[in-house]
Each structure stands twice: as C-alpha cells, then as structure tokens.
Amino acid sequence: MDLSYLFRLHRNDKKDQRKSFILVRASFYAPLRSKKYNSDANGFDISSRYNYNCGVILGLTMTTFFPANTDLHLPDSDGKPMADNTEQFRWIVLIKENLEILFADDPNVFVAGDLLWYPVKSRLISPVAPDVMVVFGRPKGRRGSYKQYQEDNIAPQVVYEIFSPSNNVDEMERKLEFYQTYGVEEYYQYDPERYELKGWQRQGEQLLPIAHIDGWTSPRLGIRFAVGNHELVIYRPDGRQFLSSVELEQRAQQAEQQLQEMQALLQQYRDRFGELDK
Q1: Which element (helix H / strand E) includes 158?
Q2: What is the pLDDT of residues 181-220, one digit of tens each?
Q3: Residues 231 and 93 occupy one common structural domain
Q4: Is the domain of 98 the same as that of 179?
C-alpha cells in the first residue's frame, strides 16, 4: 500500500535566522505501527507535531518558499558555458539578436540569452538558463538573472533551446517539464546537427507538441519557421529573413554603396543640366 502525505512544516534557519515554510511530500508503504520520525537535518523537527501510522519512508521532496522581502543572494551564474561549440553559439546569437532587432522599438519586451531564470524565491528549485527567452510586459535593461518574483511575477512567454552534443534526453525532458510548470507559452528546440526543429505550445496547463512545425508562425512573435534545404530559416513578420551580424553588415554596406552610386549619378546630372526643378 502506498500513501502520500503533504505537510506544511515551519523552519527556523539557524544560519541566517530567516523563517520560512516547507512543503514536504513523503510516500509511505506497509503501515505497521505508530512511529515518530525525527530529523535534525537542516533544522527540521517533525516528531513534535506529527505522529505517522506508517512503516518505511520511500521518498521525501521539499520546496522552501521565503517571504518576498527576503534577500537570498541567489547566484547569477550556474558555472556552465553558454555554448558547447561554434554552431550552437551561432544559432543562439542569430535568434537572440534578430529578436532584439524585431522588438527594438517596444520598451516592454525583454530579450535575453543564457540568462538564469528563477521562477520562485527558493534555493531548492534550481533555476534554468534558456538559450534565448522573450518576456512581454517587462522593460528592457541589464539583469544579472531573471528573478520572476521581482518582475511582476511575469514568466518568459517564449523560450528557445539549441541542442548540443552535451545535451541528453533526460536533461531536455526536465527542461520541458520546467517550462510547462512555470508558465512558458511557446517552447522551441532546434538541433543544428540534424536540422531538426521541435515546438510546443501551451494549451491549458500543458505544453503540447506542435504537429506541423514547418511553416509554423509563432502566435506571440509573429515569426515564421521554415525547415528546408538542410537548414532552419526564420522569417520576420514582414517576410525578411533572420540574418547573422556579418550578413547584416554586408547588407548595410551594399545599401551604402548603392546610395553613393545614386548620389554620384545625381551629381553628374546636375553638372550637365543644372539643378533639378523644385
């Protein structure tokens, strides 16, 4: 027989003298007799308040929540590299920078790359750093990490992950569960080695797979994905393609050269025929 119990325990943190409460979920089986379970780890003492009619504890998970005005000094880095190789890095920069350009005129769209996201104020819930994330309703600006509880509790609506050799199935499943749990609306995952794009869209409490991703238009971003010719191509709402910084510089140089040629032709006309009539 397997029973699950959910308890609210109070903790007095001896290290920093902060009080919080902990949600504890314990699974038990084979009820035998009344027995008190004591634990002094991390300052917990559950024996004085609870008397369990059960046998062996199978598992115990805890989540600590602190008051909103408590400063936990949560780190801004997880110590992991932004990318494992040049191809992953290229795609992270391509998507992040083009989204920055796309929403440059909207002061309340925040775009970031490889930024730790803390969905709740807790040391026991590990943050995740999406390769790219977009947050509507939050101002642009510098951040060491994205602490949602300091951002009007607005979760990133769109996140991207670029697959790398160091990623594995279990890790990506954990990320999907994290994004589903904490309110992401659209999640896109691209594997540049296999030219494989996957997407999930929120429906109710779940992120469900997007069945036909080729030609898909993001409801939030308005951008369109095309998977063909062994390469992912992303188009802006106006039909222009996402370009790298080198390609953007080349386009800018071409436009500048064309402008100079037009000005030279105009000057030749003026030298021959005089000023144009106004």
Answers
A1: strand 158-162
A2: 999 999 999 999 999 999 999 999 999 999 999 999 999 9
A3: yes
A4: yes
